[in-house]
Amino acid sequence: MMSEDAGQMLVIYDDPSDQRSLSLDETSSTEESPDETRLSLDTTNDAVPYIGQRFATHDAAYEFYSDYAKRCGFSIRRHRTEGKDGVGKGLTRRYFVCHRAGNTPVKTLNDSKPQRNRKSSRCGCQAYLRISKVTDSGAAEWRVTGFVNHHNHELLEPNQVRFLPAYRTISDADKNRILMFAKTGISVQQMMRLMELEKCVEPGYLPFTEKDVRNLLQSFRKSDQEDESIDLLRMCRNNKEKDPNFKFEYTLDSNNRLDNIAWSYASSVQSYDIYGDAVVFDTTHRLTAFDMPLGIWVGVNNYGMPCFFGCVLLREENLRSFSWALKAFLGFMNGKAPQTILTDQNMCLKEAIAIEMPTTKHALCIWMIVAKFPSWFNAVLGERYNKWKTEFYRLYNLDSIEDFELGWRDMVSSFGLHTNRHIANLFALRSLWALPYLRSHFFAGMTTAGHSKAINSFIQRFLSAQTRLAHFVEQVAVDFKDQAAEQQIMQQNLQNICLKTGAPMESHAASILTPFAFSKLQEQLVLAAHYASFQMDDGFLVRHHTKLEGGRKVYWVPREGIISCSCHQFEFSGTLCCHALRVLSAGNCFQIPDRYLPLRWRRISTSPAKLLQSSSDHTERIQWLQSMVSTLVAESSKSKERLDMATEQVYSLLSRIREQPVTSQGARDISYVHRNL
């Protein structure tokens, strides 16, 4: 027998004069016990449907029930229409049901067509509103003849229900604004942020999502994709003819149309040979004008600057496409896989990396995760969002896995996030993004906020909504060379470094490492003076001079020049920590062992001049020469003596150059040079 409380929870109204069986789905399960349900929030009587309620049209009834559903935490859809027997009788009965009514029918798998593996939200919910058409007084009207408010699923809170598809709308004014933004070349994420600022709403509170904006742009797409593909392939083949070391791969679909394409430059392959130990594969961008997912492989060079490795354009973001992209990239790089690779949170990409790069440590870019926090948690946490974010960063930077997991449980409890799916998903993937799980792997510092901003800025330089695909390949090449010229100038501006400790280890490292890498090591050398070292039976205990407990364990084998610390900073960043440096200093070591001054952080590297000489692309070499001339002018203008020397040498050089013959290729590129001066 149903309890009194349960009986009050079950709200079912029916007009005896209009009894009729309701089957929302032929495969629906039997009705669940009311004790296992959560019903609507309390509302005023005027706002709740009731038997006999009248509406002028069935659309008016739908709007009323939809407003009621939104307040209560669900949405509705039109389910079934019925008419009386006889010709010309027309529509006489309509059913509006909960959006989770019915069950999804089993689809027949077709191996020849890609399947969209989307989980259905339908769970056989029996809530509904039935209206019937009556003409008692001559004028037709619609009356409520059936109402069931019994849901077999959790209802959403007010700050969550707005994300249901039925309530996500883009007004005509917003559509025009979005299309205008698309023409300027900004990303969808930037469009969302701008519109949030314009409407003075918190992040995540727009009445539509990023996915809705992408779908809108796709519906208005007017590019001739087939012509674009032909131009792109032609451009890549022309680049290959001019420079045999230019690399590209592509696939065609069953209709002989371009499916995927990837490419890399000779200078990128050479850079990867030195700096390809840690790679970011950023797949979060799209060519807005063509709506193609764009993947960019980027690293960090010895001067801490973004280093471009390659690009890929994909038709689909699935396992097959990502596997093809990774195979193509490894082919460009002569089969050499990176030690570590950072990506966005994409399960298909995660699986593809496990298959194609089984020896590579895969991790998730923390900055790509954090970028989603406003839309994930701002509405849920409200005023507590910033406090929660501070706690998240504290946990992220912990050293101990045990401390992280205990702290995570406390954080979930403190902020009431036990049922939040994003929190659950983050914890399930914690070994891929939380530093306590990653410190023993090398990431070249690319997990820091500074590097993330630099890499994102580098990528944004050549993303444009109005860029045609063929021109995009050229634009990437030009911007890559511009970035290399900036690097050359930065190298020269950082030549004068300042020693702070006077220790022989410091001057030794300064003579080997680039200014960027040395600055990181110098920070640790300065900190080392604040630590005490105690020799133990199995190594050394190092802790801050103000601490009486705790510390780091350091193991040092002087004869073999091997030293390691329990903080794993060298393994993580390629820079020795203050704990290890303190032990070396106390042990009368005046030079850092050679193995702890990695080649990738040293001054000796593939210089711009060597890259220029190795390239067989005439246009590429002209671009390099232009950057060198700019540097020559900047350096020569610093003193009269420099200017005199440069003038004399350049005049002599020009005289010798003019004695050399002019080729047809050079004549063709004269117009290019003038366009880009």
From TrEMBL:
Transmembrane segments: none
Source species: Hibiscus sabdariffa
Pfam families: FAR1 (PF03101), HTH_FAR1 (PF26175), MULE (PF10551), SWIM (PF04434)
Domain SWIM-type: 555-588
Alphabetical list of PANTHER family matching this protein: PROTEIN FAR1-RELATED SEQUENCE 10-RELATED, PROTEIN FAR1-RELATED SEQUENCE 11
UniProt function note: Putative transcription activator involved in regulating light control of development.
Protein name as catalogued: Protein FAR1-RELATED SEQUENCE
Family classification: Belongs to the FHY3/FAR1 family.
Record keywords, A-Z: Metal-binding, Nucleus, Zinc, Zinc-finger
Compartments (UniProt record): Nucleus
InterPro entries, per database record: FAR1_DNA_bnd_dom, FHY3/FAR1, HTH_FAR1-11-like, MULE_transposase_dom, Znf_PMZ, Znf_SWIM
PROSITE patterns: ZF_SWIM
Claim: Nucleus is one of the keywords in the record: yes
Disordered: annotated span: 1-41
Matching SMART domains: ZnF_PMZ
